[in-house]
Design brief:
By secondary structure, this protein is an alpha+beta fold. The protein is 28% helix and 38% strand. The protein has five helices and twelve strands.
Length: 226
């Protein structure tokens, strides 16, 4: 499987979402965060667009969202986030396990995602992710294996204050299992708002690792599942 080609194609798709201004319906506004949705072209569910302002530089925000090492310390929706295979400095495969949500009515899921960061002109970064098959981590009976259709973060300097960043996130997650679409549609917007709030809090204590530290940690700090 050509993971790099898939990663590049996913980033391009996320860029297309960010340029698409038609058909979005605002479903929630809370704490200066806006969640919109439209029907996904990928599955019988929604593509969500989440917009917020992060009071940090785009470089720091992109690094924070891309690095896997400290994710579970701030992202309260996850209980596991492990890099299981590094492809190159811009691309890796991760295994995640979510917490239950919607007051326990949606049980934890696990995902195998291909994560990729791409830099664009104007100091814009896209961190894309998409579920892939990875033979070393087949589905197990412990969790329902979910599927992320092309998702991503678009980070760019805020025009009126370039020291701060505009974060636009796109999510289209197929949770699988026998879930009512109504439960998903009612719970997803609040969870997406909470993600932005968690990121705002988490980035305050985030220290950008050096390239040397990053590559070192990428090879040693993530233990394979036995």
């Amino acid at each position: 499987m050509d993971y790099k080609a898939i990663a590049q194609q996913t980033a391009q798709e996320v860029l297309g979402y960010s340029q698409d201004i038609s058909g979005w319906k605002v479903v929630k506004i809370s704490k200066k965060i806006t969640v919109s949705s439209k029907a996904s072209r990928r599955f019988l569910g929604n593509l969500y667009r989440i917009e917020g302002i992060i009071p940090e530089s785009t470089t720091k925000l992109s690094d924070f969202l891309y690095q896997p090492g400290n994710r579970v310390t701030w992202d309260k929706s996850l209980k596991v986030y492990n890099m299981v295979h590094r492809i190159d400095s811009d691309t890796f495969i991760c295994h995640t396990i979510t917490q239950s949500f919607a007051m326990g009515s949606i049980s934890p899921r696990d995902f195998i995602d291909l994560v990729y960061i791409k830099h664009y002109e104007g100091n814009m970064d896209i961190i894309s992710s998409k579920s892939v098959d990875f033979p070393e981590y087949p589905p197990t009976s412990n969790y329902i294996r979910g599927y992320n259709h092309p998702c991503g973060y678009v980070c760019s300097p805020l025009k009126e204050n370039p020291a701060h960043s505009k974060l636009v996130m796109f999510v289209q997650t197929e949770l699988k299992g026998k879930l009512s679409p109504t439960i998903i549609e009612k719970s997803m917007p609040s969870n997406l708002v909470n993600f932005i709030l968690n990121a705002k809090d988490g980035i305050k204590t985030h220290k950008t690792p050096s390239t040397r530290d990053y590559h070192h940690s990428g090879h040693t700090s993530f233990q394979r599942r036995k």
